[in-house]
Amino acid sequence: MVRQHVNPLSRIHQQPRPLPPPEALFADPSLPLHLDIGCARGRFLLATAALLPGRNHLGVEIRRPLVEVAEAERQARELTNLHFLFCNANISLQDWLAALPAGQLDLVTLQFPDPWFKLRHHKRRVLQPGLLRAIAAALAPGRELFLQSDVAPLIEPMVALVKASGCFERPEADARPWRQANPLPVPTERETHVLAQGLPVYRVLYRRNALPPPSRQALEQAGRSTDNPHTLADVPGDSSP
After folding, report:
1. Active site includes 114?
2. CA distance 146 to 196
3. Ranges of each domain in the chain
4. Domain 11-234 has CATH 3.40.50.150
5. Diameter over CA atoms, the chain
6. What pLDDT, in 10s, does the model give residues 25-64?
7. Within 13 Å, how many C-alpha atoms sit on residue 113's CB side?
8. Which of 106, 114, 150, 238 is catalytic?
9. What is the band of 185 on the pLDDT scale with cuts at 50, 70, 90?
10. Model-level pTM?
11. From edge to edge, which strands make up the β-sheet containing 168-169?
12. Less packed terminus of the chain by CB within 10 Å, N or C?
């Protein structure tokens, strides 16, 4: 599978896009919400929404053609607990998360994001400090954040940033350093492809604790530290990713 990169720092993707509230997206906006950031063509969510009708599912994606294909398929299947939106998550999603009713956000998933390997491109990665802070503020204690990737140098800084926030804990029963099984009922296309090659998938499940999110400045400082792999062992949290 070939990754189709989009530069999130390009002018078109730096323009804020007001996103519709849940009542404009779902037949029953009161249902718990699953947010999938970087949903690609939406096949994971199309299958998940059909299996889990007791949740609403929102997929956001920066590649507009993929969103158009996914949304057309959703409409064809008449899935009223699912919607797809085009946006740059780091520009448009934070205000939307802040406006959600308290306790509505149930699960956030970020699966196989673009790795942007070069150091000067790390600011293009999707899990930036501001977005993580917005996720932490919107998730009530006990609600979950799930990360997975097939690129260890990508997920390690993500884990370090989540640890630095102080807002999340890992279930005691989970294997360290990486969770062995996917807790979700459906694998993504990328996950299926990677496992078929006999390659590893790095997974971490977090639960929101009761601590308030740190200041944006503090988390941005932690984010700069995660760009240096030698600092990962110094990030607060349990001793393994």
Report:
1. yes
2. 22
3. 11-234
4. yes
5. 50
6. 999 999 999 999 999 999 999 999 999 999 999 999 998 9
7. 30
8. 114
9. very high
10. 0.87
11. 82-86, 56-61, 33-37, 105-111, 144-149, 202-208, 168-169
12. N
